[in-house]
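sorry for the late reply, my laptop died twice this morning and i had to redo everyting from scratch. anyway the thing you sent over, i finally got around to it. pasting the sequence first so we're on the same page, its 220 residues, then the predicted structure underneath. double check i copied it right bc i was rushing
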Amino acid sequence: MNLLADIVWADIAQAVVDTLTMLGGSLLLTILFGLPLGVALFLTSPGQIWASRLGNGLLALLVNLLRSVPFIILLILMIPVTVLLVGTSLGVAGAIPPLVVGAAPFFARLVETALREVDRNTVEAVQAMGATTRDLVWRALLPEAMPGIIAAATVTAVALVSFTAMAGVVGAGGLGDLAIRFGYQRFQTDVMVVTVVLLLLLVQGIQMLGDALVRRYSRG
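ok and here's the structure:
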């Protein structure tokens, strides 16, 4: 008996490509939007150079609201916005906007936490030298927090893998879509097993790469 009788490897290969495309595109945009948001959360917090109770409160409220919405609901809620932005709510392109909206606030909070770990003496020394806010961020905060930011990106990438799988519910494509349409709806257990194994390997690969980069950029 062929245990992989239902497997169409061309479909599996396309699903892998779709998943990697969603992951790569959404991770890049998540970092582009989430990193400045995390820096702003840090700089507007009490005791920092842009300290503002109102500004920090509004940013925190936005982040907390977006983080509190379950991703599967966010996918549905964002359909009109997604169609407006990319012209469709289906496929890889249709999955990326909700992926970014779901992951960017999460990443921003992790960035804020990483920045809080920077030695206060380093920040004060840079400020004492008359550095501008831009210099403080680019020459002190981000370089010092780099291992933590890489670790945050790694955690976010792993979360995005699970998000891409959930996006299959609304026809986003990828391994999650394949698992739902064939593994679940058509009771093709072999398809389900293969997709789960591939997702596990992808997560493991991301974690190993992230750990290696953290070690590379950690001092001492």
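The chain is about 80% helix and 0% strand.
thats about all i looked at so far, will dig more tmrw
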